[in-house]
Specification:
heterotrimer, A mainly alpha (198), B mainly alpha (251), C mainly alpha (97), A: 198 residues, mainly alpha, B: 251 residues
Chain lengths: 198, 251, 97
């Protein structure tokens, strides 16, 4: 099925890449019992024990202490920072409470000021409105007296002419002269009494 | 069907020595990885800055330490276990970096897929938790284990035997085998899909299947990174749990 | 182990009787290894499924205790998984050792 030469080459390649070129069963160091894949080889164990012991001593006395020291330092620093942070937080809380108190006082004062200002403004408004009303009333009265004065003046100025007209008209109607002062005074009297006219 | 020729398992897990054949200090790829699992965490810890505001590598280093504290020690032991931080951290780092070389090119081999490191770590865990038990309770630790007071008298020999077996044999055995077998299985899985990819690539028309096998290989690589982490975590967590059960044996 | 091996041996004999002894041993070892791992995977598979399901349910009911539940879940998975992994080791032993 498969070219045996190719197979041989491929297995050679696999063996070269992944495994030792030859089975060294006979050349195991030290150990008497060999050629089982399970039995431990004493030379491998020698190097393993050597490496492990060296690594343990190094870790115990050289490698681990600095790491542990820096980890403890970090834990201490973190703890200190945490404490400082909680201290600062409590400080902030008290300060903010203080500020809150002050704010409440200031707010009350402001309220008082606002109320006062509002009351003053209200009084001012009342005063202004009252004054304006008074002025308006005064002006209105003034206007009313002016109107009546004018009217009286107009009537007074009209009266002689109306009397003349009435006398003239009566002269035409009666056909004789009525230039006497008695007639004239009567007409004036009539006109002066407005209840007789419309 | 494909004429798949799987390499023998010895070729997958056993590596030639670079020097010192036949000697105890014979160094092969597993030894190199063990040394790298020592060097990489050391360099990481040394290079990372030590500043109050962490950044970059320092984040990773402190994250690892914090992970061991919060996810391993605190759930298993509580605050009394914080003094075992160096041991558990070392176990985690050593196992994790040993595992991680499973997916790092040019290595492609987890150090813990050989029995040597898991066996040593499991025996170390056994020694640690037994000695902590003796230190905390004296001889009563052994007595409480073999003759447990919390069960009826008639059951005590049986339960005591089971407890002894569990504490002294099954726990380290399971620790070692869990780590070893997980990593070996992952390695074999990756090798299998690698070989499969190459075989499909050279198999004429069947090459159209290559996206499937290669995609699976990529997915498995990601999964093996997760397994590397998980096994290191579980090993450290179980050690912590065993130490806790030695400190407080009446459960 | 030996029972599985003998069963696999019989399977191999039935399948093809012209094996040499060495091939038969290899085939029966492989078949036994496969059976060992397959059987060892059944129980832990069910167990881990049940365990994770219950853990997810617990986390959904009490999200505030999710951390503890997750840790205990990983512990339980580790203990349960060990059985399957022992099966895997037996597989390796049968197949290669």
């Amino acid at each position: 099925m498969l070219n045996p030469v190719v197979t041989q080459i491929s297995v050679k390649a696999a063996t070269f890449l992944l495994a030792a070129e030859e089975a060294p069963g006979a050349e195991e160091g030290g150990g008497g019992i060999t050629s089982s894949p399970i039995w431990p080889s004493s030379s491998e164990m020698f190097w393993g024990i050597l490496s492990f012991t060296a690594l343990y001593l190094l870790v115990r006395f050289v490698l681990l202490p600095p790491v542990q020291r820096i980890r403890n330092d970090r834990a201490a620093t973190i703890q200190a920072d945490k404490d400082a942070a909680s201290l600062a937080r409590s400080k902030v809380a008290s300060a903010s409470a203080e500020v809150e108190d002050q704010l409440a006082g200031v707010r009350g004062e402001a309220q008082v000021v606002i109320d006062e200002a509002r009351a003053e403004a209200e009084a001012e408004r009342q005063r202004l409105v009252g004054r304006a009303e008074r002025e308006v009333n005064a002006m209105r009265e003034l206007a009313a007296t002016e109107v009546s004065t004018e009217r009286a003046e107009a009537l007074a100025s009209l009266r002689p002419q109306v009397a003349d007209l009435a006398v003239g008209a009566a002269s035409r109607v009666t056909g004789r002269s009525m230039q006497s002062s008695s007639v004239r005074s009567k007409v004036d009297e009539y006109l002066a009494n407005p209840s007789n006219s419309n | 069907m494909l004429g798949l020729e799987y390499p023998p398992i010895e070729n997958l897990v056993e590596w030639p020595n670079y020097f010192g054949d036949g000697q105890i200090w014979a160094l092969n790829k597993i030894g190199i990885i063990s040394l790298l699992a020592l060097i990489i965490p050391t360099v990481m810890f040394l290079v990372s800055k030590k500043e109050l505001v962490p950044g970059g590598l320092q984040n990773i280093v402190e994250g690892v330490v914090e992970f061991i504290e919060d996810q391993v020690i605190m759930p298993a032991m509580g605050a009394q276990g914080l003094k075992y931080l160096p041991l558990l951290l070392t176990m985690f780092l050593f196992i994790f970096f040993g595992n991680l070389f499973e997916v790092i090119p040019t290595f492609q081999m987890p150090a813990n897929a050989r029995m040597a490191n898991p066996l040593f770590l499991a025996v170390l865990s056994l020694v640690v938790y037994v000695s902590i038990g003796f230190k905390a309770h004296g001889f009563a630790f052994l007595k409480d284990t073999a003759w447990p007071g919390f069960v009826p008298v008639g059951l005590r020999p049986l339960v005591g035997l089971i407890e002894l077996l569990t504490v002294f044999i099954l726990r380290p055995f399971a620790l070692a085998v869990r780590l070893f077998a997980n990593m070996l299985a992952g390695h074999i899985l990756l090798v299998t899909f690698g070989v499969l990819c190459i075989s499909v690539f050279t198999a004429g028309i069947i090459v159209i299947l290559l996206p499937l096998t290669f995609g699976m290989l990529v997915l498995l690589t990601a999964f093996e990174i997760f397994v590397s982490f998980l096994q290191a975590f579980v090993f450290a967590l179980l050690t912590a749990v065993f130490i806790d059960s030695s400190l407080n044996p009446a459960h | 182990m030996s029972v599985l091996t003998s069963i696999a041996y019989q399977v191999a004999e039935v399948a093809q009787e012209s094996f040499t002894a060495d091939e038969a041993k290899q085939v029966s070892g492989a078949a036994g290894a496969g059976m060992a791992y397959g059987l060892a995977a059944i129980g832990p598979g069910i167990g881990i499924g049940y365990l994770v399901g219950q853990a997810v349910q617990a986390m959904a009911r009490q999200p505030e205790s999710a951390g503890t539940v997750r840790t205990n879940m990983f512990l339980g998975i580790a203990f349960t998984e060990a059985l399957a992994l022992i099966g895997f080791v037996v597989f390796i032993l049968l197949k290669f050792a």
